[in-house]
Amino acid sequence: MKNEIASNDLLFLCEMGLDPGIDHMSAMALLNDIAERGGVVHSFVSHCGGLVAPESDTNPWHYKISWNPRNVVTAGQAGALYRLQGKEIRLSYEQLFERENTVEVAGLGRYAWYPNRDSLSYLSLYGLQTVDTFIRTTLRHPDFIKGWKNLLQLSLTHDEPSYSLPNATLSEAFAHHFAKSGVETKVTQLREKDPLFDTQLQFLGADADKTPLGTSVFTPALLLQRALEKKLLLQEGDRDMIIMLHEIAYTISGENREVVSQLVVKGEDQVRTAMAKTVGLPLAMAAILLLQDKIALRGLQIPTHREIYEPVMQALKNEGIAFSETERSVM
Fold first, then answer.
1. What pTM did the predictor assign?
2. Which DSSP symbol is given to 174?
3. What average pLDDT does the structure give for the chain?
4. Per residue in 152-185, is it b (16+ CB within 10 Å) or e — as a string?
5. Which end of the chain, N or C, is less surrounded by CB atoms within 10 Å?
6. pLDDT, tens digit (0-9, with 9 covering 90-100), for 164-190
7. Nearest by Cα to 325 from 2, 19, 34
8. For the chain, how far is it from start to end, CA to CA, in angstroms?
9. CATH code assigned to 2-141+238-329
């Protein structure tokens, strides 16, 4: 397929949104700069999250949906594969949230992260086959991670079994699932042990909430999705927020250095979101460049080529989507 695309003088440009997309372009700009200065990278960690802006953060999950709610539920189902200090690590969905990993975001405080799918598939694409650490992650508020870990214990992300409960409310559907899956005792234990999770579960509608579920047949994952859609919705005037953060450690002229590159974008309101802007603009900009004959590259590609990322990143900067870098020497 790849050869056929190229032989027909076509460009199939994939992974050209936010993540993947802007992450590839911004990372390659940094990595190529380091390589051109004679540096050798030994650690690459890239974080990205679609979040809620602090001024619109009004619920105990510290999260509101700005993208596909189904993907919020299933994002970690494939587990994760990454490299850490020379060792390849493979984690299941449940294991993703066992460790509390955090990173400091300048001006916003600490956010939690969990490894994102198969990071190692990008090693060769980034030219980093020999690095000791290579991780791509998803960012969330620390309280979200804690709550999600508990939801996993209650089997609420499973796509089976299928339940039939006509005209159910959210609370009735939650109670039905807890009873049928045999986790009622676990629910009580988690809520007694963790007052935050008790509040989070109440917020999703698990207690006497008469909000209609909206479907007569549902799986645990669909129940959770419907609850998220109803309870974590961006309200009028709400602003979402995108955070992207690259942490790159490298050696140059015998000196160990670290560069941190950060992007924060906030939406205008619940319709003109940061998510829509950062997902949609990169591909639109690449299409314009292609129509202007400013991209000669052909074949099946992702935007790790200078010919693509330099003009697109400049166009994004013109729209206010720009990274800031800090660099320091490390012992």
1. 0.92
2. H
3. 94
4. bebbbbbeeeebebeebbbbbbbbbbbeebebee
5. C
6. 999 999 999 999 999 999 999 999 999
7. 34
8. 48
9. 3.30.360.10
Could you identify the residue written with the tokens 């979200």?
A: 144
The full 3-state SS of 7-60, as one line of letters, equals HCCCEEECCCECCCEHHHHHHHHHHHHHHHCCCEEEEEEEEEEEEECHHHCCCC
| Residue pair 7/221 in contact by the 8 Å Cβ criterion | no
Of 259, 255, 254, the C-alpha closest to 27 is: 259
Cα 78 versus chain centre, distance: 14
Q: Residue ranges of the domains in the chain? A: 2-141+238-329, 148-231
Summarize pLDDT for 274-326 with one digit per residue, the tens.
999 999 999 999 999 999 999 999 999 999 999 999 999 999 999 999 999 99
CB crowding 268-287: b at 16 or more within 10 Å, else e = eebeebbbbbbbebbbebbe
Residue in the structure block whose two tokens are 């959210």? 170
Q: What is the DSSP letter of 117?
A: E
Contact 229, 65 (CB under 8 A): yes
